[in-house]
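Aim 2 progress update. The chain analyzed this quarter is reproduced below.
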Amino acid sequence: MDTTVEAIVLRRRDSCESDRRLTIFSRELGKIEVVAKGAKKSTSRLRGSSEPLSMAAYTYAEGKKQRFVTTAQPRSAFHGLRLDFDRLNLALSWGETLGQVVPYEHPFEEVFDLCIQVLRYLETVDAPMVALAWGEVKLLELTGFLPSFSRCVLTGSKILESEAFFSPKAGGYIVRERAGDLSDRYLVRAEALMGLSALAERDGPPVQMKFTYEALLALQKFWEYVCEAPLPARQHLLSSLRSPT
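Predicted structure tokens:
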């Protein structure tokens, strides 16, 4: 029996001569793997809907070992992202991080809604870097990994240093006196951590935010710890961005 889900493509890999293997994220089933047969061909009706960050209603059939897409009805290609290289890089980083942190075949409606919301922000707002930082903080919150940005996880005291130690293993900010035993600690500008803490309280990204680049940079090692995997698209993004002066 065929199944139809509305989903967004988080990852695309070539398979065989003309097929594409897709990681898609749906409201109903969560993250699943499907094969779009013939999608690499220029004449294929599945070609456009097999591109990363494309959203469609995918109908698939269950094979013995794999799911095979039979049809795809496009919903959105987020064209604003594809017309702006910087916005596209931000969105690809978002898709990569989300694809690593959510488990397979586990419905997560709030994260699905957040995914679409963040992509629309990245497509339209004047400060897309801020939108990405907000989305990442909300993703950490929804998945239960939100660190303590503004208070020491051991003592509960507020940040007083201009540069603060941050530890993924400990779960966030650590006062300098207690950070010596943590081998994974690293220094982060305090204003960046305070900015991330403020994002957690918001229902949408602010119009602007100081030290956004430093905030995204501060989260890189934390995300790698949470995902237990490298994040090359996110690392490439950080390498390509410039810290605001």
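The chain has two domains: 3-77, 80-240. The chain is about 35% helix and 25% strand. These observations will guide the mutagenesis experiments scheduled for the next reporting period.
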